[in-house]
Amino acid sequence: MPLLDPRPVLEQALDAMPMSRQQAAALAPRRRELEVARILELRMIRRLLNPVRRLAPLLTGHPRYSEYEAWERLAGELP
User: Fold this and answer.
1) How many CB atoms are closer than 10 A to CB 68?
2) Most buried residue among 3, 8, 44, 76 by CB atoms closer than 10 A?
3) Which positions ≥6 away from 77 have C-beta within 8 Å?
4) pTM for the complete prediction?
């Protein structure tokens, strides 16, 4: 049943990321020096990961799960 399928949640979250992981990783350590718009983009990444985090046990076989895991490792450094 498509309504209960968790895969679109993962796919849409990853597709909606406002920047690449490399950009986010470079900006995160200097987040206090950034303009407000950039800080909000970094916060958006954390917000996009929240619903996926809750569904992660159901998504381990998804082809993009490793991409999610890489974002998740970075999430702790984001504002």
Assistant:
1) 21
2) 44
3) 25, 28, 29
4) 0.89
